[in-house]
Amino acid sequence: MIYSIDLQPCAEKDVDDAYNWYEDQQAGLGDLFLKELAALYKKLELNPEIFSNATKRILNRFPYVIIYEITKTEVHIYSVFHTSRNPAKKLRGR
Questions:
Q1: Residue 58: half-sphere exposure toward Cβ, Cα within 13 Å
Q2: CATH number, domain at 41?
Q3: What residues make up the domain containing 44?
């Protein structure tokens, strides 16, 4: 069974903000960020419990945590959160 990825609007904004910031730092760096996210999404689609029923996953090359929930057929991504930010804000307003 392949799960679908449901990227919540707040998580979409997180991704857009991160992409833009990385692109401002160096052209192409934002694309690398998106490529790593896409690889993680693919793993979650194929086997969302690959990370031991975790509700978060840290990216390999970028200091971001993905906050998500697994339901019967979907993986709901609530936040793409930079690890240097205040952890109390991970799900604020989501």
A1: 6
A2: 3.30.2310.20
A3: 4-89
**Residue 71 falls inside a structural domain:** yes
Q: Tens of pLDDT along 1-52?
A: 899 999 999 999 999 999 999 999 999 999 999 999 999 999 999 998 887 6
Residue 39 lies in a domain: yes
Number of domains in the chain: 1
Say if CB 35 and CB 41 are below 8 A apart: no
Encoded tokens for 78: 């609530």
Q: Where are the alpha helices (DSSP H) in the chain?
A: 9-25, 29-46
CB 70 within 8 A of CB 48: yes
